[in-house]
Structures are given as structure tokens and as C-alpha cells.
Design brief:
mainly alpha, 20 helices, Serine Threonine Protein Phosphatase 5, Tetratricopeptide repeat, 347 residues, single chain
Length: 347
């Protein structure tokens, strides 16, 4: 089973619209950006085709097109579009180009082009050497490339640029923990605890949870829940109850939250894992498939793998084997999946 958390910086579409400030010369692009904002991605691509025929500003056009392609999980096409947008800036680097570069790096990362993503973050750092998020994201990418020393150096640089943000320390821990480097990550948690006067109840709860201090985590997270029942609180609160052995209650928290926000893919994945732990394999499968129904989410690979595991537990080895073959075509370097595929071949 897989459970990972990858956090990427992507600006909001509202910011996109205000940043572009399209004039009448960009009416098709303007309409497409509005369509993307409303979740009408296919319609947006049609409008952008009209924009290309009308010779509208390619920098803005391909930026919007790349975002639409990303929402449709067409990451290689999105990569091409963002590169076209950046190459059309006529040599004048603007703040918007930094945002487009972030989009480009995310598209490269999600398509498995980690080297490309690393190079894009390096380019951002070259122009904006105080951008702590670029160091964080490059560090995450370097972990995927197995460059752990470089990743640690980038994480440390990110922290030096923003030493008072506890969430930054938590993100670094989660990245390192996901690749089996919990001990190295724990240092960042302990450092974050030193920012005691700046910690919210949610941040305290996350820190206590990751440090294995579950009762203290529960108390802090319940306080945070009373003030704000958003997904970040419910995810960690549920995980804490799971760690305390109350899996049924954790599952009820996830389900209740998903009734309010059915598109929270991280909680869909966590509910599925929780159901697997309880032996509710049909419930687990339903949770993973609910997450997979949400377009353009960073948990697609995790959810696809965990769906295969659910089918195995349901003894539907034929379906699991078919899905595994499709999975390995998309993610051929996943060693855990390769081992699982060998097991499936014997069933």
C-alpha cells in the first residue's frame, strides 16, 4: 500500500485571470481562461484553438492551454504548452513567467520527467534566489532522483530563507519520511517545535503526530477541529485515531468529511487505507475509485496502486493483474509494483 504526500505550489485560477488582464484582442483566450476557472477544460481547448487561428498572444494563450491540459492530466502536452508560453515572452522576464515556470515544473514532475522538473526549479532559483518554495520543490524532485544529499541541502536552504514557518518543516519531514528517511526528517520536526509561540493547534497536532505523541496530537487536533474542520485537520485527526487503535472512528471521520467535500483525494486515499486495515475491502475499493474520479490530482499514481491492492484483497486477481499491467506501462520504475506484479503472475 502506498501513502505519500506531495505538495506543489500552483497559483489559483483567479490570480491567473487577474494577472492576464486580457484585452479585447484576446477574447478567445479570455473566454478559455474563464472556462478553465469553471472546470470546462475541453471547452477551453476548443476556444484556444480559435485563439490560435485568430493569432492571439501566444504567451497568454499557451499558458491557459497548459493549465487546461494539466487539469485533464495530459502532462506532456501541458509541458509543451508552458514551454511555448515561456519562449514567447520576447526575452522580458515577468513575474507571470515565474508562475508559468512553476506550472511547467509540476507538469514535468507529474509526467515523470524529474530531471526536467529539477532543471526548471533551478532556473527559477537562478532568477529568484530568495524563493524558498523553489528550493523546497527542487529538494522533493531530487529525492525522486535519488539525490538525497542535494535534497537535504535544498531543504536546509529553504528553511534558512523562511525559518519561522512550521508548515515548511512539516512538509520537509513528510517528504523525507515518504522515502524512508524518517530519522533525518525528525530533525526538522524538532526544530519546528522550537517555534512554539507561532504554532497553531493544527501545526502542533501535525508535529505531535509525526513525533509519535498521539495523545497530545489528539488534544491539539480536536482543538483545531472545533475552530476549523477542513481537510488538513480531519486527515491528521483521523490518522491520529488510527494510531491510537480506534480505526472505526477514524473511518467515520473520513466519511463524514467526504460527504461535505467528496473531491478531497487525500482523504479518499486515507479512507481506503483505513478500510483495508479494517478488512472492508469493498469499502476500500470504493474510496480509491472515488479519488480517481477527481481530475488532475497528484494522488493518481498512489490511488491506482492502492486500487490494485484492493482488488487483490477481494481475490479478483484477474482484474488486479490487468490494472497492474496498465500501471507499469505508466510507471515502469516502480519497484514495489514490479514485485507485486511477480506475485500476481503466480495467481
Amino acid at each position: 500500500m502506498k501513502n505519500r504526500s506531495n505538495t506543489f505550489f500552483i497559483i489559483s485560477l483567479a490570480c491567473l485571470l487577474s494577472a492576464c488582464s486580457f484585452s479585447n484582442k484576446h477574447e478567445n483566450t479570455d473566454s478559455a481562461a474563464e472556462a478553465v476557472k469553471n472546470g470546462q477544460y475541453e471547452e477551453a481547448l476548443v476556444m484556444l484553438g480559435n485563439a490560435e487561428e485568430a493569432g492571439e498572444d501566444p504567451e497568454l494563450l499557451y499558458r491557459v492551454k497548459g493549465i487546461a491540459e494539466m487539469e485533464l492530466a495530459s502532462y506532456e502536452n501541458a509541458t509543451d504548452d508552458f514551454l511555448k508560453s515561456l519562449s514567447a515572452n520576447r526575452g522580458y522576464v515577468k513575474e507571470q513567467d515565474r508562475d508559468t515556470s512553476y506550472y511547467l515544473a509540476v507538469a514535468q514532475y507529474r509526467s515523470g520527467n524529474y530531471e526536467g522538473a529539477k532543471n526548471t526549479y533551478s532556473a527559477i532559483i537562478g532568477l529568484y534566489p530568495q524563493d524558498h518554495d523553489a528550493f523546497l520543490q527542487r529538494g522533493k524532485t531530487e529525492l525522486r532522483l535519488g539525490e538525497t544529499d542535494n535534497a537535504i541541502a535544498d531543504f536546509n536552504r529553504a528553511v534558512s530563507l523562511d525559518p519561522n514557518d512550521p508548515d515548511l518543516f512539516i512538509q520537509i519531514y513528510e517528504c523525507l519520511s515518504a522515502v524512508g528517511m524518517k530519522d533525518e526528517g525528525s530533525k526538522y520536526l524538532k526544530d519546528a517545535m522550537e517555534i512554539s509561540t507561532k504554532l497553531t493547534d493544527l501545526q502542533k497536532g501535525k508535529l505531535y503526530y509525526n513525533l509519535g505523541e498521539y495523545e497530545q496530537a489528539k488534544n491539539s487536533l480536536e482543538s483545531a477541529r472545533n475552530a476549523n474542520a477542513k481537510g488538513g485537520v480531519m486527515l491528521y485527526l483521523g490518522r491520529t485515531y488510527e494510531a491510537l487503535g480506534d480505526t472505526n472512528y477514524a473511518a467515520s471521520l473520513y466519511r463524514a468529511y467526504l460527504e461535505e467535500d467528496p473531491a478531497d483525494v487525500e482523504i479518499c486515499n486515507q479512507l481506503g487505507l483505513c478500510c483495508l486495515d479494517m478488512g472492508d475491502y469493498a469499502g476500500a475499493l470504493a474510496a480509491f475509485e472515488q479519488g480517481l474520479s477527481v481530475p488532475d490530482n497528484e494522488y493518481v499514481q498512489t490511488l491506482e496502486y492502492n486500487r490494485i491492492v484492493a482488488y487483490e484483497y477481494l481475490s479478483d486477481f484477474s482484474k488486479a493483474s490487468t490494472l497492474m499491467k496498465e500501471y507499469l506501462k505508466r510507471y515502469p520504475d516502480d519497484s514495489a509494483a514490479q514485485r507485486e506484479n511477480k506475485f500476481l503472475s503466480t495467481r
